[in-house]
Specification:
Layout: H1 10-46, H2 52-64, H3 68-84, H4 88-102, H5 107-124, H6 127-143, H7 147-163, H8 167-184, H9 187-203, H10 207-221, H11 227-247, H12 251-268, H13 271-287, H14 291-308, H15 311-327, H16 331-347, H17 351-368, H18 371-387, H19 391-407, H20 411-426, H21 438-450, H22 456-477, H23 483-489, H24 491-502
Helix pairs in contact: 1-2, 2-3, 3-4, 4-5, 5-6, 5-7, 6-7, 7-8, 7-9, 8-9, 9-10, 9-11, 10-11, 11-12, 11-13, 12-13, 13-14, 13-15, 14-15, 15-16, 16-17, 17-18, 17-19, 18-19, 19-20, 19-21, 20-21, 21-22, 22-23, 22-24, 23-24
Length: 507
Amino acid sequence: RESSDFEGTPERQFDHHLLHQVTYETLLKAERKVGHGAAARWLQERTKGRGAEFLAMTGEHAERAGQTALAIDCFEQAGTKATERYANTAAEAHFRRALSLLGESEPMRRVGLLSHLEQIADTVGDRPGQDALLADMNALLQRHPDDQRQAHMLWLMARLASRRGDSVAEARLARQCFDLAERCGAAESAARAQRQLAWLRIVRQDYPTAEMHIEIGLSWAGRIALEVTRATTEAELLNTLSFFLVLTRRLQESRRTSVAVLARAEALGRPLLQLNALLNLTTLAGILGWWEEAARWCEQAHALARAVGSPREIANVQNRLATIAEGLGDLDAAERWYQEGLVIRRATDDRRMEAITLRFLTQVHLDQGDAQKAMDCCDQSLSLHQALKEQLEACVVGALAALCQVRLSRPAEALATVNATLSRLQQELAGCPADETTYPRWICYQVLDGLGPEHAQRAGPLLDELFADVQARATAVTDADDRDRLIQAIPDFRSIVAAYGRRGAAP
């Protein structure tokens, strides 16, 4: 086993170091006797099935001996081995050595190596690196057309657009990918393109179309010939399905799906699949106000995200940890987690999640009593959401802007902003499910209430609606005898019920 992979007692670590020393000394003896070529053959024979370090060592000697084909094979295998344990820096170095040795030969193999490198760049959040690698892939495929490789590249491009929050480009590229994959029978690319399209519909609250894309994706995943690839792609789609089921309030079905995906991911040895299943379970526990359970799932996800070395996934987990901290009333911890995630979002050019994280920070700063800091975050978030053309999110941030203006004693601006927000909720966003708009409507109520008693005629009916929605939501997601616990566990629910009680209405 490789030293970077090894864990154990100090005595065993010393034994492992000694093994490396003996192997290296034996290798030097082989070199002195018959040169690099024999050393490479000796290593190749004795290191079958070993880790990336031994394969790379074999590749070094094969290259020096002029055995280029063997060297390429060794470096490619070393890169694959390193990728399996998410040794991202080592994997990149090995794949680049193989690519360099290939020169202008074997264009399809070079496309495959570029694809491996693009995956590493995606994992570590190197967006300019992804741009460059995709440009190289595209140039090769222009000279050496291959429909299946082209479909895969289109999916990679769609994924990169998604990372940057460019939903227009993402949708266009995902559709192009599916159309080409369907024509040439590239089942894996077709399934993944449908998953991408499902996410886009989920973000837009178009749940029937999202479900249709998931079903089509699963049907394509079932056609993948390689068993491991088929099982992995199906699990990716099932993770998306589980999140979709959470949003459509089919919570028991979502839980069963996530638990099944987690078991499959563990059996396949796929940490990213495990991580996403854990995040779905975290979200589900949070919806039910089970904060301690949510924290347990989330800590497991955090450990996996760090092991994988993916800044994007670390930031995703940090957002969940912040939400849990808010649920437990620890605003300082919530702010810290959001701030750490925000740094990553900006570094990885994830504009959509940067905007959402800024919105979360706006609420935390308001709860901490710092309206000016909240307003600064709110302005940044609103600008990003408007650029991304996200109506609901922009509407939510608009409501928060009005609340910031009330707290900053700017009543005229607050009234204009809340009027515009309520107008959007009643017109363009009228078709959104009630639970999707509970939060912005609650913020609007707080604004009207803060503007004084002259707005009570508008605020009162809005609070009545919110109270009814909270009761309906609690009834839909939990048992009758658990309803009061749930309402008290969710900060917004608890606040709405308390505000309703203060008006003197019967609880």
